[in-house]
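chain below, 293 aa
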Amino acid sequence: MSNVVFIGLGNMGGPMANNLLKHGCAVCGYDLLPSAVKKHVDAGGTTTDSLEKAVIGADVIISMLPAGKHVETLYLGENGLLKQLSSGQLVIDCSTIEPETAKKVAQQADVKKIAFVDAPVSGGTVGAINATLTFMVGGSVDAVAKATHWLNIMGATILHAGETGAGQLAKVCNNMLLAVLMTGTSEALKLGIDNGLDPSVLSTIMQQSSGSNWVLDKYNPVPGVMENVPASHDYQGGFMVELMAKDLGLAMSTAAKSQTTVPMGALAESLYRLHKQKSGGQRDFSSIYMLYS
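prediction:
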């Protein structure tokens, strides 16, 4: 039986760990929220009070954390896990963080001959639950080959973007576009609704027309149009506004470093910052629709 340590059991990490359990892996889960740990244990997982001990001898350590500072502290801090890991072990970080942070952790892992890949995901909580996630992976060919077995259990598509940090760069670009699509789609739907169109009918028309996009197909932001999306459940679950605002901040920082002009991304970032201030940031990112209401 494979031994996995999974760190970060939130809206995304919890279901990903569950899929590893369903595949017959022994998964030791860790999270700062007791409720998240309880769900994991109820699903058949185990937990620990000492990550430093838990990672010794594990086949793979997988992390899904909110920000780069958490990843850096986890692996490189005073009691960082890299100090406990041995040559030949594998680390997969699925967090969305700064490419520089991923590279920094990878460099230290390489010193100890520990395989490290950055593998941020796309597909939302539905993808995490159904194991249909897309992984955008950065790392050496050998490290990615080693990680592929585990990523296949949790997702449906694995795309090797390049060397360490490339997965994060791809994710930054993807989420910036997703934010632009969500804000634009919300705006178009609200325009139709305010002028008497049924949002379900309008959504179907746009799906069959040149305005078709992933938001209309998979993640409609108008309550009641799609049954199994956050919009129809008071925007609970899913990918939180505060996380989208964070990712857009990463996109703006990346654009500034490369001197890339991103006016649509900058506008989306401004809208999500405003929405976070108004809503508190805990609802799903599709709740940007509320900003137009």
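Strands lie at 3-7, 26-30, 46-47, 60-63, 90-93, 115-118, 121-122, 133-138, 155-162. The chain has a mean pLDDT of 96.
thats it, cya
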